[in-house]
Amino acid sequence: MKKVLVYFHEKYMTPSGGPSGYLYNLKTYLEKTGLCASETAGAKEKEGTSATAGAPVDAGTGATETAGAPVDAGTVETETAGARSDNRAEVELYFLNDRDFHSSLSFKMKNAAHRVFRSDRSLSDVGKRVGQIFFESEQEGPYDLSRFDAVHFHSTADMFTQKKNLEHYEGKVILTSHTPKAPHLEWIEDMAGAGGRPHDPDGRNDAGISEKERALLASTKEWDEYAFSRADYLIFPCREAEEPYFHTWEDYPKFRKEEKIFYLPTGTGKRVPKKTRQQIRKELHIPEENFVICFVGRHNSVKGYDQLKEIFQELKNRLGRNDLPDLKDSRELTKIPEVTVLCCGKEGAIAPPSSGNWIEAGWTDDAASYVQAADLFILPNKETYFDLAFLETMSIGKTSLLSRTGGNKVFSGMEDRGIYLFDTKEDAISLIYRIMNEDPVVREEKEEAQRVLFEKEYTMEKFVPRYMEILEKILRADGENRNT
Q1: pTM of the entire structure?
Q2: Sheet holding 172-175: strands in order across?
Q3: Strand pairing partners for 4?
Q4: Is-contact 124 145, C-beta < 8 A?
Q5: For the chain, which ranges sit under pLDDT 50?
């Protein structure tokens, strides 16, 4: 029986984006289906105490297990896995939950690094101190990884904190990075955002970044270099999700080896809005005749929040001029409706426009209600990994407009499912007018086709067996790959 540790603390798993949401969906699905016992984490070895691995995931039988007992997670029935072979590995999954262990240290260290960055320390000391914080985190005491046949990290920073512990580790090391740019660049963006200003550094030449950020770059870049070189395998949601790494990290090709990579399409649970379209519009005082565009995510440049502001301003200007587009369509747009932009997510350093038609709903665990209240979901990312918010939108079925970047490219040619891709701001505006002009019945048919696509490819019922199959391939002694 093979044991795999998912190196991420369960208390940081939340219904949000990135690894927190990704793993929240996985763990929640396993618990709801009775495939996961209440205690699902391994504990650090304690002196004089026998370490127990906790109760891992049972993805095969669904039987209720006593906490602490090993459970078989390798007998998943799946269309993609095919028939079980004699050399197929059986897998037990574990999540971190030892309350005494400083796990998911990237969260703890990020907060400490924020404090250093905002302090009055000399510029040359900033990078050294952040590096020291991470070095100190390695001295917390070795987590006993030797009990596991593989460890799956979901943060390069977490992996770096286990650098010493991994020196003599003989199991398989797996990394899923999750970020829509080189992770160290996202960290720097977070630092700048904590300082209250927008930031979008050029990964190739560091142009336009401050001296503090430049000092920080030397430390944070080391985390990525170590993690990507030490990992035995990398898991991406699709080949296109690697695009941001080629764009923002000049050295990425040095660490990329084709035989190390697996592609695992992300899955999520079907989202059920808690409120109706009418309730949301009434609460936010949005007229029913307004055309509502919904954005969900971080309010930063890489997510395209600034580009969304530009699109909104241009739509507003054209409305003022009553500048009717030439749609070359049998139906004519005789009047441009008022456009309202509805944003979900924590506000960042980029300020929203001052307009009654721009609404900030803030962070919410019910983004589905806001998406449902809209006419169009927009994902204007400058770089895209594979957006969880869009998969959740698909589960509802909503006409969507995505930038033609990274993982979004998987959805090229799916206009018949209500998914449109744009290259430029002008493209986006033209498509918005086209969608405004679409027959409502046709739009509803496309959105139903979108829901069918979600059920076919992106549910947790599809994701979990695929994930188990990849783990089994990795754990096979012959090391066979791969994306076949």
Answers
A1: 0.81
A2: 91-96, 2-9, 150-153, 172-175, 233-236, 261-263
A3: 93, 150
A4: no
A5: 37-88, 99-104, 121-124, 139-140, 194-208, 330, 479
